[in-house]
Amino acid sequence: MNSEKIIIIGGGVSGITTALTLQLLGCQTEIYTEKKAENIADKNTHPEFASLFPSASVIPHSVYSNQLEELFQSSQSFFYELRKRSFPGLTLQKHFEVFEFEKDRPEYGDWMMNFNSLEEFHPREIPRRSLSQDVYGWAFDCIFADWPLYFPGLITLYKESGGEINQRKIQKREIPSLPADIIINCSGTGSPDLFDDPVEKQMILKGHLLHKPEASLITNSNDEIISYNYTPKASIYSDSSGNACDVYCYPRKDGWILGGSRESGFLDNNDSETEDSPIENTRAYKIDSLDIPSAVIDLNQEILNTTFGHSLEQSDKLSALMGYRYIRNKENGLRLDHETLDGKTVYHNYGHGGAGVTLSWGCAIHLANKIISLKRSQMQSTLLDRLEEIMFDKKT
């Protein structure tokens, strides 16, 4: 085990998960973070803090890495183990990815549990706009992290394992004087301000979200919780380049999370975005002072009503959010490497795109494996044993 202090910069899901992993493995860790999720009342003032906005299904969407398969499978298997141990907020969902045009099977189809073509389902089981509409795609089982339960549970476990969280903004000039020889950078969009990044243009996707509170879980005849991404023809909903856009619905215990949009742009020097390909809107609904693409409500309403008999109206008590997914670049956007700076070893863990939650455990275990001399199987066993000890002590 390692008693040397390790500093983690960033208090989002990647920072907390990485720090918790090292803490459970016997390291002394401290998180430095400018923002704590529990202290932010207005999420729209911090669209760059991705951990305020996850849906959060364990699916490798909108992320680019040459290590994706290994990281995802490591993360997914650990999430399943956490669920077996009743970790707060982890559920299993039947997730549908539906298209109104033919679509190639995704690479991650080989990695998901119970992956099946839509041809295996009765037409009435498939989320769709109308039963007469021809649809294509697939469905699979996936872990879902119910965010208001899972993320606070993660933070609580980190603190109970002896971890510290120091709320302060770190400046680049302070890095050499930080009281640790190992620094792990999980600062997301703040990373280019703290460390040199080889990518010149930092890509983001900006996304609209809606929350419908107190909406009931969406289930099928087998009592499976259902979520979906649905992509209509481009003539129905597209960006300015003519690319078809999807809408989605993820049920949580506190209601539904609905979307979406994927407006691409680039970070400027002030961590704000410059627009590249905005959603092509003929209509928008004004909710909480945000212009929400009308399709987010209208298409979801049509799907929810047609398939499940549920209602979604603009007049519902909806709250609107706008957040960033930090893609970084489409060649190898995830940065998971290390460098030596001023005598310190700095490990980078950012650029997760739409898969921050999805890859959180895989990236954390990958970095821990670089720092601590343990076999991967022994590391996972140690993590789970220590986690169970803390959860058991808490119950008793």
From TrEMBL:
Record domain FAD dependent oxidoreductase: where: 5-369
SUPFAM superfamilies listed in its UniProt record: Nucleotide-binding domain
EC numbers, comma separated: 1.4.3.3
Catalysed reactions, semicolon-separated: a D-alpha-amino acid + O2 + H2O = a 2-oxocarboxylate + H2O2 + NH4(+)
Transmembrane domains' residue ranges: none
One Pfam family here: DAO
Cofactor entry: FAD
Keywords noted in UniProt: FAD, Flavoprotein, Oxidoreductase
Keyword Oxidoreductase: yes
UniProt superkingdom: Bacteria
Family: Belongs to the DAMOX/DASOX family.
Protein's name according to its UniProt entry: D-amino-acid oxidase
Species whose genome carries this gene: Fodinibius salicampi
